[in-house]
TrEMBL record:
<dbReference type="GO" id="GO:0005978">
    <property type="term" value="P:glycogen biosynthetic process"/>
</dbReference>
<dbReference type="GO" id="GO:0005829">
    <property type="term" value="C:cytosol"/>
</dbReference>
<keyword id="KW-0328">Glycosyltransferase</keyword>
<dbReference type="InterPro" id="IPR011835">
    <property type="entry name" value="GS/SS"/>
</dbReference>
<dbReference type="Pfam" id="PF00534">
    <property type="entry name" value="Glycos_transf_1"/>
</dbReference>
<comment type="similarity">
    <text>Belongs to the glycosyltransferase 1 family. Bacterial/plant glycogen synthase subfamily.</text>
</comment>
<comment type="function">
    <text>Synthesizes alpha-1,4-glucan chains using ADP-glucose.</text>
</comment>
<dbReference type="GO" id="GO:0004373">
    <property type="term" value="F:alpha-1,4-glucan glucosyltransferase (UDP-glucose donor) activity"/>
</dbReference>
<feature type="domain" description="Starch synthase catalytic">
    <location>
        <begin position="3"/>
        <end position="236"/>
    </location>
</feature>
<comment type="pathway">
    <text>Glycan biosynthesis; glycogen biosynthesis.</text>
</comment>
<dbReference type="GO" id="GO:0009011">
    <property type="term" value="F:alpha-1,4-glucan glucosyltransferase (ADP-glucose donor) activity"/>
</dbReference>
<keyword id="KW-0320">Glycogen biosynthesis</keyword>
<feature type="domain" description="Glycosyl transferase family 1">
    <location>
        <begin position="288"/>
        <end position="441"/>
    </location>
</feature>
<feature type="binding site">
    <location>
        <position position="16"/>
    </location>
    <ligand>
        <name>ADP-alpha-D-glucose</name>
    </ligand>
</feature>
<protein>
    <recommendedName>
        <fullName>Glycogen synthase</fullName>
        <ecNumber>2.4.1.21</ecNumber>
    </recommendedName>
</protein>
<dbReference type="Pfam" id="PF08323">
    <property type="entry name" value="Glyco_transf_5"/>
</dbReference>
<dbReference type="InterPro" id="IPR013534">
    <property type="entry name" value="Starch_synth_cat_dom"/>
</dbReference>
Amino acid sequence: MIRVLSVASEVFPLVKTGGLADVAGALPLALARLGVETRTLLPAYPTLAETLGAGTELARIDDLFGGPARLVAAAVDGLDILLLDAPHLFDRPGGPYVGPNGYDYPDNWARFAALGRAGALIGQGLLPDWRPDVLHAHDWQAALAPVYLAFGEGERPRTILTIHNLAFQGAFPQSIFAELGLPERAWSIEGLEYYGSVGFLKGGLHAADAITTVSPNYASEILQVENGMGLDGLLRGRADALTGIVNGIDTDIWDPNADPHITANYTTSDLFRRQINKRALEAEFGLAESEEPILAVVSRLTWQKGLDVLAESCDDILAMGCRLVVVGSGDRMLEGSFLSAAARHAGRMGVRIGYDELLSHRVQAGADALLVPSRFEPCGLTQLYALRYGCLPVVSRVGGLADTVIDANFAAQAAGVATGVIFAPVTAAALREGIGRLLRLYADPALWRELQITAMRSEVGWSASARRYKDLYSSLLQDSAP
Protein backbone atom coordinates (compact mmCIF):
# COMPACT_ATOMS: atom_id res chain seq x y z
CA MET A 1 0.00 0.00 0.00
CA ILE A 2 1.21 3.49 -0.86
CA ARG A 3 1.10 5.94 2.04
CA VAL A 4 0.59 9.61 1.10
CA LEU A 5 0.78 12.72 3.23
CA SER A 6 -1.33 15.42 1.63
CA VAL A 7 -0.46 18.93 2.86
CA ALA A 8 -3.09 21.61 2.25
CA SER A 9 -4.28 24.86 3.76
CA GLU A 10 -7.97 24.06 3.25
CA VAL A 11 -10.00 20.87 2.93
CA PHE A 12 -13.71 20.45 2.25
CA PRO A 13 -15.90 19.99 4.30
CA LEU A 14 -13.80 21.54 7.08
CA VAL A 15 -12.66 24.84 5.57
CA LYS A 16 -13.08 26.18 2.05
CA THR A 17 -12.33 29.37 0.17
CA GLY A 18 -12.05 27.85 -3.31
CA GLY A 19 -11.57 24.77 -5.45
CA LEU A 20 -8.36 23.72 -3.65
CA ALA A 21 -10.49 22.59 -0.71
CA ASP A 22 -12.73 20.47 -2.93
CA VAL A 23 -9.73 18.71 -4.46
CA ALA A 24 -7.97 18.17 -1.14
CA GLY A 25 -11.18 16.71 0.26
CA ALA A 26 -12.23 14.49 -2.63
CA LEU A 27 -8.96 13.10 -4.00
CA PRO A 28 -8.02 11.10 -0.85
CA LEU A 29 -11.41 9.37 -0.92
CA ALA A 30 -10.95 8.39 -4.57
CA LEU A 31 -7.40 7.19 -3.89
CA ALA A 32 -8.60 5.06 -0.97
CA ARG A 33 -10.71 3.05 -3.42
CA LEU A 34 -7.47 2.30 -5.28
CA GLY A 35 -5.62 1.12 -2.17
CA VAL A 36 -3.75 4.37 -1.46
CA GLU A 37 -3.72 5.47 2.18
CA THR A 38 -3.80 9.25 2.59
CA ARG A 39 -3.50 11.42 5.66
CA THR A 40 -4.12 15.15 5.23
CA LEU A 41 -2.17 17.76 7.20
CA LEU A 42 -4.28 20.87 7.83
CA PRO A 43 -3.86 23.89 10.12
CA ALA A 44 -6.06 23.72 13.24
CA TYR A 45 -8.14 26.79 12.55
CA PRO A 46 -10.41 27.63 15.52
CA THR A 47 -13.57 26.88 13.53
CA LEU A 48 -12.61 23.20 13.29
CA ALA A 49 -12.86 22.34 16.98
CA GLU A 50 -16.65 22.03 16.95
CA THR A 51 -16.57 19.67 13.96
CA LEU A 52 -13.60 17.49 14.89
CA GLY A 53 -13.58 17.57 18.69
CA ALA A 54 -10.43 17.12 20.74
CA GLY A 55 -8.82 14.45 18.57
CA THR A 56 -5.81 12.36 19.58
CA GLU A 57 -2.41 13.91 20.11
CA LEU A 58 0.29 12.08 18.15
CA ALA A 59 3.37 14.29 18.49
CA ARG A 60 4.67 17.62 19.77
CA ILE A 61 6.99 20.21 18.25
CA ASP A 62 8.69 22.31 20.91
CA ASP A 63 9.20 25.44 18.84
CA LEU A 64 7.50 26.04 15.52
CA PHE A 65 7.97 29.64 14.43
CA GLY A 66 7.61 31.21 17.84
CA GLY A 67 5.64 28.72 19.89
CA PRO A 68 4.89 25.05 20.59
CA ALA A 69 2.71 22.94 18.34
CA ARG A 70 0.96 19.60 18.42
CA LEU A 71 -0.08 17.12 15.74
CA VAL A 72 -3.56 15.84 16.45
CA ALA A 73 -5.32 13.02 14.62
CA ALA A 74 -9.00 13.41 13.74
CA ALA A 75 -11.45 12.06 11.19
CA VAL A 76 -14.40 13.45 9.25
CA ASP A 77 -16.44 12.02 6.37
CA GLY A 78 -13.89 9.31 5.61
CA LEU A 79 -10.87 11.65 5.72
CA ASP A 80 -7.91 11.00 8.03
CA ILE A 81 -6.86 14.45 9.22
CA LEU A 82 -3.65 15.52 10.95
CA LEU A 83 -4.28 18.90 12.55
CA LEU A 84 -1.35 21.23 13.07
CA ASP A 85 -2.39 22.73 16.39
CA ALA A 86 -0.27 25.87 16.75
CA PRO A 87 -2.45 28.46 18.53
CA HIS A 88 0.11 31.26 18.17
CA LEU A 89 -0.22 30.94 14.39
CA PHE A 90 -3.76 29.77 13.68
CA ASP A 91 -6.04 30.49 16.65
CA ARG A 92 -7.38 33.87 15.55
CA PRO A 93 -10.56 35.34 14.05
CA GLY A 94 -10.99 35.71 10.31
CA GLY A 95 -10.42 33.34 7.43
CA PRO A 96 -7.50 31.05 6.64
CA TYR A 97 -5.49 33.83 5.00
CA VAL A 98 -7.27 37.12 5.68
CA GLY A 99 -8.11 38.79 8.98
CA PRO A 100 -11.35 40.48 10.01
CA ASN A 101 -10.03 43.76 8.56
CA GLY A 102 -10.00 42.26 5.06
CA TYR A 103 -6.20 42.20 4.76
CA ASP A 104 -3.78 39.28 4.66
CA TYR A 105 -2.31 38.34 8.01
CA PRO A 106 1.17 39.95 8.11
CA ASP A 107 2.69 36.69 9.38
CA ASN A 108 1.25 34.45 6.65
CA TRP A 109 4.82 33.62 5.71
CA ALA A 110 5.39 32.09 9.18
CA ARG A 111 1.97 30.41 9.32
CA PHE A 112 2.46 28.51 6.09
CA ALA A 113 6.18 27.96 6.49
CA ALA A 114 5.10 26.18 9.69
CA LEU A 115 2.68 24.05 7.70
CA GLY A 116 5.46 23.08 5.29
CA ARG A 117 7.92 22.46 8.12
CA ALA A 118 5.48 20.20 9.95
CA GLY A 119 4.84 18.28 6.75
CA ALA A 120 8.56 17.77 6.26
CA LEU A 121 9.00 16.57 9.85
CA ILE A 122 6.26 13.99 9.33
CA GLY A 123 8.01 12.93 6.14
CA GLN A 124 11.23 12.48 8.12
CA GLY A 125 9.55 10.24 10.69
CA LEU A 126 8.06 12.49 13.38
CA LEU A 127 5.06 10.22 13.93
CA PRO A 128 5.87 7.06 15.86
CA ASP A 129 3.92 4.56 13.76
CA TRP A 130 3.31 6.15 10.36
CA ARG A 131 5.64 7.50 7.71
CA PRO A 132 4.58 8.55 4.20
CA ASP A 133 6.06 7.19 1.01
CA VAL A 134 4.97 10.33 -0.86
CA LEU A 135 4.38 13.89 0.33
CA HIS A 136 1.83 15.69 -1.87
CA ALA A 137 1.84 19.47 -1.33
CA HIS A 138 -0.90 21.76 -2.64
CA ASP A 139 -0.18 25.33 -3.81
CA TRP A 140 2.16 27.91 -2.28
CA GLN A 141 0.82 27.45 1.23
CA ALA A 142 2.31 23.94 1.36
CA ALA A 143 5.17 24.46 -1.08
CA LEU A 144 7.91 24.73 1.55
CA ALA A 145 7.38 21.08 2.55
CA PRO A 146 9.36 19.80 -0.48
CA VAL A 147 11.93 22.58 0.13
CA TYR A 148 12.57 21.56 3.74
CA LEU A 149 12.92 17.95 2.66
CA ALA A 150 15.23 18.77 -0.26
CA PHE A 151 17.57 20.77 1.99
CA GLY A 152 17.29 18.35 4.90
CA GLU A 153 19.25 15.22 5.73
CA GLY A 154 18.46 11.54 5.91
CA GLU A 155 15.69 9.56 4.27
CA ARG A 156 12.74 11.42 2.90
CA PRO A 157 9.58 10.62 0.98
CA ARG A 158 9.19 11.43 -2.67
CA THR A 159 7.51 14.78 -3.21
CA ILE A 160 4.84 16.22 -5.52
CA LEU A 161 3.68 19.82 -5.73
CA THR A 162 0.31 20.55 -7.34
CA ILE A 163 -0.27 24.01 -8.80
CA HIS A 164 -3.92 24.94 -8.41
CA ASN A 165 -3.41 28.53 -9.56
CA LEU A 166 -0.01 29.88 -10.62
CA ALA A 167 -1.16 33.45 -9.99
CA PHE A 168 -0.88 32.89 -6.23
CA GLN A 169 2.79 32.34 -5.45
CA GLY A 170 3.50 33.26 -1.83
CA ALA A 171 6.20 35.90 -2.33
CA PHE A 172 7.61 37.59 0.80
CA PRO A 173 10.45 40.01 1.65
CA GLN A 174 14.02 38.71 1.73
CA SER A 175 14.20 39.61 5.40
CA ILE A 176 12.15 36.56 6.39
CA PHE A 177 14.64 34.07 4.91
CA ALA A 178 16.78 34.02 8.04
CA GLU A 179 13.70 33.00 10.06
CA LEU A 180 12.88 29.94 7.95
CA GLY A 181 15.57 27.69 9.42
CA LEU A 182 16.98 26.70 6.05
CA PRO A 183 20.69 26.56 5.16
CA GLU A 184 22.24 29.55 3.40
CA ARG A 185 22.49 27.60 0.16
CA ALA A 186 18.69 27.64 -0.05
CA TRP A 187 18.96 31.36 -0.88
CA SER A 188 19.76 30.83 -4.53
CA ILE A 189 18.20 30.65 -7.97
CA GLU A 190 17.81 26.88 -7.41
CA GLY A 191 16.15 27.56 -4.07
CA LEU A 192 13.86 30.27 -2.73
CA GLU A 193 15.34 33.43 -4.23
CA TYR A 194 12.84 35.02 -6.61
CA TYR A 195 13.74 38.47 -7.96
CA GLY A 196 15.09 39.47 -4.56
CA SER A 197 12.18 38.08 -2.59
CA VAL A 198 11.42 34.71 -0.98
CA GLY A 199 9.22 32.68 -3.31
CA PHE A 200 7.41 29.82 -1.60
CA LEU A 201 5.87 28.39 -4.77
CA LYS A 202 9.00 29.04 -6.78
CA GLY A 203 11.12 27.13 -4.24
CA GLY A 204 8.69 24.24 -4.20
CA LEU A 205 8.73 24.00 -7.99
CA HIS A 206 12.51 23.61 -7.88
CA ALA A 207 12.51 21.14 -4.99
CA ALA A 208 9.62 18.78 -5.76
CA ASP A 209 10.33 15.50 -7.50
CA ALA A 210 7.21 15.95 -9.63
CA ILE A 211 4.90 18.84 -10.46
CA THR A 212 1.27 18.59 -11.44
CA THR A 213 -1.31 21.10 -12.55
CA VAL A 214 -5.05 20.60 -12.49
CA SER A 215 -5.61 20.17 -16.23
CA PRO A 216 -3.50 19.15 -19.23
CA ASN A 217 -4.25 22.35 -21.14
CA TYR A 218 -3.17 24.53 -18.23
CA ALA A 219 0.07 22.54 -18.00
CA SER A 220 0.81 23.60 -21.58
CA GLU A 221 -0.33 27.20 -21.08
CA ILE A 222 1.96 27.93 -18.13
CA LEU A 223 5.04 27.08 -20.20
CA GLN A 224 4.31 30.20 -22.25
CA VAL A 225 5.54 33.66 -21.29
CA GLU A 226 2.07 35.18 -21.41
CA ASN A 227 0.63 32.59 -18.97
CA GLY A 228 3.63 31.65 -16.86
CA MET A 229 3.31 34.44 -14.28
CA GLY A 230 7.09 34.91 -14.29
CA LEU A 231 7.75 31.20 -13.68
CA ASP A 232 7.52 29.96 -17.26
CA GLY A 233 11.31 29.66 -17.62
CA LEU A 234 11.58 27.53 -14.50
CA LEU A 235 8.65 25.39 -15.63
CA ARG A 236 10.08 24.90 -19.12
CA GLY A 237 13.27 23.73 -17.45
CA ARG A 238 11.26 21.20 -15.47
CA ALA A 239 8.86 20.24 -18.25
CA ASP A 240 9.86 16.57 -17.94
CA ALA A 241 8.57 16.60 -14.35
CA LEU A 242 5.34 18.43 -15.17
CA THR A 243 2.02 16.63 -15.67
CA GLY A 244 -1.50 17.94 -16.15
CA ILE A 245 -4.19 15.88 -14.43
CA VAL A 246 -7.69 17.24 -14.66
CA ASN A 247 -9.63 17.72 -11.45
CA GLY A 248 -12.74 15.77 -10.66
CA ILE A 249 -15.64 16.36 -8.31
CA ASP A 250 -17.25 14.31 -5.56
CA THR A 251 -20.16 12.78 -7.45
CA ASP A 252 -21.81 11.64 -4.22
CA ILE A 253 -22.09 15.22 -2.96
CA TRP A 254 -22.92 16.60 -6.42
CA ASP A 255 -25.67 14.22 -7.51
CA PRO A 256 -28.96 15.65 -8.79
CA ASN A 257 -30.66 12.31 -8.12
CA ALA A 258 -29.88 12.40 -4.38
CA ASP A 259 -28.96 16.01 -3.57
CA PRO A 260 -30.84 16.97 -0.37
CA HIS A 261 -30.25 20.68 -1.01
CA ILE A 262 -32.38 21.05 -4.14
CA THR A 263 -36.16 21.23 -4.44
CA ALA A 264 -36.66 18.25 -6.76
CA ASN A 265 -34.28 15.42 -7.52
CA TYR A 266 -33.99 14.21 -11.10
CA THR A 267 -32.05 12.01 -13.52
CA THR A 268 -31.60 11.86 -17.28
CA SER A 269 -34.78 9.77 -17.37
CA ASP A 270 -37.01 12.39 -15.74
CA LEU A 271 -35.47 15.69 -16.76
CA PHE A 272 -38.91 17.32 -16.70
CA ARG A 273 -38.53 17.46 -12.90
CA ARG A 274 -35.67 19.90 -13.38
CA GLN A 275 -38.31 22.53 -14.17
CA ILE A 276 -39.38 22.42 -10.51
CA ASN A 277 -35.93 23.63 -9.52
CA LYS A 278 -36.12 26.40 -12.12
CA ARG A 279 -39.38 27.64 -10.63
CA ALA A 280 -37.81 27.54 -7.14
CA LEU A 281 -34.76 29.48 -8.34
CA GLU A 282 -36.99 32.14 -9.89
CA ALA A 283 -38.78 32.56 -6.57
CA GLU A 284 -35.54 32.69 -4.58
CA PHE A 285 -34.07 35.45 -6.76
CA GLY A 286 -37.26 37.38 -7.38
CA LEU A 287 -37.43 36.56 -11.08
CA ALA A 288 -40.75 36.59 -12.90
CA GLU A 289 -41.84 33.10 -13.92
CA SER A 290 -40.92 32.54 -17.56
CA GLU A 291 -39.62 29.97 -20.01
CA GLU A 292 -36.73 32.24 -20.95
CA PRO A 293 -33.39 30.62 -20.06
CA ILE A 294 -31.70 31.51 -16.79
CA LEU A 295 -27.96 32.07 -17.13
CA ALA A 296 -26.00 31.77 -13.89
CA VAL A 297 -22.65 32.77 -12.43
CA VAL A 298 -21.27 31.10 -9.28
CA SER A 299 -17.79 32.50 -8.87
CA ARG A 300 -15.32 34.82 -7.26
CA LEU A 301 -16.05 38.19 -8.83
CA THR A 302 -12.61 39.00 -10.22
CA TRP A 303 -10.77 40.08 -13.35
CA GLN A 304 -9.31 36.58 -13.71
CA LYS A 305 -12.83 35.16 -14.02
CA GLY A 306 -13.63 37.65 -16.83
CA LEU A 307 -16.59 38.97 -14.91
CA ASP A 308 -15.80 42.59 -15.76
CA VAL A 309 -16.69 41.61 -19.34
CA LEU A 310 -20.00 40.15 -18.17
CA ALA A 311 -20.73 43.17 -15.98
CA GLU A 312 -20.37 45.57 -18.90
CA SER A 313 -22.58 43.32 -21.05
CA CYS A 314 -25.48 42.72 -18.65
CA ASP A 315 -27.90 45.08 -20.39
CA ASP A 316 -27.18 43.64 -23.83
CA ILE A 317 -27.39 40.02 -22.67
CA LEU A 318 -30.69 40.53 -20.90
CA ALA A 319 -32.03 42.23 -24.02
CA MET A 320 -31.21 39.04 -25.97
CA GLY A 321 -33.98 37.19 -24.11
CA CYS A 322 -32.07 35.78 -21.15
CA ARG A 323 -32.31 36.16 -17.41
CA LEU A 324 -29.30 36.30 -15.13
CA VAL A 325 -28.43 35.06 -11.63
CA VAL A 326 -25.09 36.01 -10.05
CA VAL A 327 -23.71 34.45 -6.84
CA GLY A 328 -20.28 35.40 -5.54
CA SER A 329 -18.07 38.03 -3.97
CA GLY A 330 -14.76 39.67 -4.65
CA ASP A 331 -13.94 42.94 -6.35
CA ARG A 332 -16.11 45.65 -4.75
CA MET A 333 -16.55 47.51 -8.04
CA LEU A 334 -17.79 44.36 -9.73
CA GLU A 335 -20.14 43.63 -6.84
CA GLY A 336 -21.55 47.14 -7.20
CA SER A 337 -21.85 46.84 -10.97
CA PHE A 338 -23.89 43.63 -10.74
CA LEU A 339 -26.09 45.02 -7.97
CA SER A 340 -26.78 48.12 -10.06
CA ALA A 341 -27.67 46.00 -13.09
CA ALA A 342 -30.03 43.90 -10.96
CA ALA A 343 -31.73 47.09 -9.73
CA ARG A 344 -32.21 48.23 -13.33
CA HIS A 345 -33.63 44.86 -14.34
CA ALA A 346 -35.80 43.87 -11.39
CA GLY A 347 -37.58 40.60 -12.13
CA ARG A 348 -35.02 39.59 -14.77
CA MET A 349 -31.76 39.58 -12.81
CA GLY A 350 -30.89 38.57 -9.26
CA VAL A 351 -27.62 38.94 -7.33
CA ARG A 352 -26.44 37.37 -4.09
CA ILE A 353 -23.15 38.75 -2.75
CA GLY A 354 -21.23 36.19 -0.72
CA TYR A 355 -20.36 32.50 -0.87
CA ASP A 356 -23.08 29.96 -0.13
CA GLU A 357 -22.30 26.29 -0.73
CA LEU A 358 -25.90 25.11 -0.53
CA LEU A 359 -27.18 27.92 -2.75
CA SER A 360 -24.68 26.85 -5.40
CA HIS A 361 -26.40 23.45 -5.50
CA ARG A 362 -29.77 25.11 -6.04
CA VAL A 363 -28.37 27.34 -8.79
CA GLN A 364 -26.82 24.42 -10.67
CA ALA A 365 -30.10 22.49 -10.45
CA GLY A 366 -32.34 25.37 -11.52
CA ALA A 367 -30.40 27.46 -14.02
CA ASP A 368 -30.32 26.52 -17.69
CA ALA A 369 -26.71 27.51 -18.35
CA LEU A 370 -23.59 28.49 -16.40
CA LEU A 371 -21.33 31.34 -17.57
CA VAL A 372 -17.57 30.95 -16.99
CA PRO A 373 -15.81 33.65 -19.08
CA SER A 374 -12.41 33.28 -17.39
CA ARG A 375 -9.27 34.88 -18.79
CA PHE A 376 -7.34 31.94 -17.37
CA GLU A 377 -8.62 28.92 -15.49
CA PRO A 378 -6.31 26.15 -14.25
CA CYS A 379 -9.21 23.71 -14.13
CA GLY A 380 -12.42 25.12 -12.76
CA LEU A 381 -14.96 23.06 -10.86
CA THR A 382 -18.20 24.97 -11.37
CA GLN A 383 -18.44 23.82 -14.99
CA LEU A 384 -18.06 20.21 -13.77
CA TYR A 385 -20.91 20.68 -11.31
CA ALA A 386 -22.91 22.24 -14.14
CA LEU A 387 -22.34 19.26 -16.43
CA ARG A 388 -23.43 16.92 -13.67
CA TYR A 389 -26.67 18.87 -13.21
CA GLY A 390 -27.54 19.43 -16.88
CA CYS A 391 -26.82 23.15 -16.60
CA LEU A 392 -24.97 23.70 -19.86
CA PRO A 393 -21.65 25.56 -19.49
CA VAL A 394 -20.75 28.57 -21.64
CA VAL A 395 -16.99 28.87 -21.16
CA SER A 396 -13.93 30.59 -22.59
CA ARG A 397 -11.39 28.47 -24.45
CA VAL A 398 -8.72 28.40 -21.73
CA GLY A 399 -7.13 25.92 -19.33
CA GLY A 400 -9.32 23.24 -17.84
CA LEU A 401 -12.47 24.76 -19.28
CA ALA A 402 -11.32 23.71 -22.76
CA ASP A 403 -10.37 20.28 -21.38
CA THR A 404 -13.75 19.53 -19.82
CA VAL A 405 -16.42 21.11 -22.05
CA ILE A 406 -17.08 19.94 -25.63
CA ASP A 407 -18.32 22.74 -27.86
CA ALA A 408 -21.70 22.18 -29.50
CA ASN A 409 -20.46 22.76 -33.03
CA PHE A 410 -22.02 20.88 -35.93
CA ALA A 411 -19.54 17.98 -35.82
CA ALA A 412 -19.87 17.50 -32.06
CA GLN A 413 -23.67 17.59 -32.30
CA ALA A 414 -23.62 15.02 -35.08
CA ALA A 415 -21.33 12.77 -33.03
CA GLY A 416 -23.52 13.15 -29.95
CA VAL A 417 -20.71 14.40 -27.71
CA ALA A 418 -21.45 18.14 -27.34
CA THR A 419 -21.87 19.38 -23.76
CA GLY A 420 -21.77 23.21 -23.90
CA VAL A 421 -20.56 26.30 -25.71
CA ILE A 422 -16.94 27.47 -25.93
CA PHE A 423 -16.04 31.00 -27.04
CA ALA A 424 -12.90 33.06 -27.58
CA PRO A 425 -11.42 35.56 -27.00
CA VAL A 426 -12.63 36.94 -23.67
CA THR A 427 -14.37 40.03 -25.00
CA ALA A 428 -17.90 41.37 -24.69
CA ALA A 429 -18.55 40.66 -28.37
CA ALA A 430 -17.33 37.05 -28.17
CA LEU A 431 -19.32 36.44 -24.98
CA ARG A 432 -22.48 37.76 -26.61
CA GLU A 433 -21.84 35.59 -29.67
CA GLY A 434 -21.44 32.52 -27.44
CA ILE A 435 -24.67 33.31 -25.63
CA GLY A 436 -26.37 33.81 -28.99
CA ARG A 437 -25.30 30.31 -30.00
CA LEU A 438 -26.64 28.99 -26.70
CA LEU A 439 -30.00 30.63 -27.32
CA ARG A 440 -30.27 29.00 -30.74
CA LEU A 441 -29.65 25.61 -29.10
CA TYR A 442 -32.21 26.36 -26.40
CA ALA A 443 -34.81 27.18 -29.04
CA ASP A 444 -34.75 23.51 -30.14
CA PRO A 445 -36.18 21.58 -27.14
CA ALA A 446 -35.24 18.15 -28.44
CA LEU A 447 -31.65 19.18 -29.14
CA TRP A 448 -31.40 20.97 -25.79
CA ARG A 449 -32.55 17.86 -23.93
CA GLU A 450 -30.02 15.77 -25.85
CA LEU A 451 -27.24 18.17 -24.86
CA GLN A 452 -28.33 18.07 -21.22
CA ILE A 453 -28.32 14.27 -21.16
CA THR A 454 -24.88 14.12 -22.77
CA ALA A 455 -23.58 16.65 -20.23
CA MET A 456 -25.02 14.73 -17.29
CA ARG A 457 -23.37 11.54 -18.51
CA SER A 458 -19.94 13.18 -18.76
CA GLU A 459 -17.17 11.63 -16.68
CA VAL A 460 -16.61 14.34 -14.08
CA GLY A 461 -15.70 12.21 -11.07
CA TRP A 462 -12.28 11.35 -9.69
CA SER A 463 -11.94 7.74 -10.87
CA ALA A 464 -9.73 8.31 -13.92
CA SER A 465 -7.70 11.15 -12.41
CA ALA A 466 -7.13 9.27 -9.15
CA ARG A 467 -5.68 6.39 -11.17
CA ARG A 468 -3.30 8.86 -12.83
CA TYR A 469 -2.19 10.15 -9.44
CA LYS A 470 -1.66 6.62 -8.18
CA ASP A 471 0.39 5.82 -11.29
CA LEU A 472 2.47 8.96 -10.69
CA TYR A 473 3.09 8.01 -7.06
CA SER A 474 4.09 4.50 -8.14
CA SER A 475 6.49 5.77 -10.80
CA LEU A 476 8.19 8.07 -8.31
CA LEU A 477 8.66 5.23 -5.87
CA GLN A 478 10.03 2.98 -8.59
CA ASP A 479 12.51 5.68 -9.59
CA SER A 480 13.75 5.90 -5.99
CA ALA A 481 14.11 2.13 -5.52
CA PRO A 482 17.70 0.92 -5.14
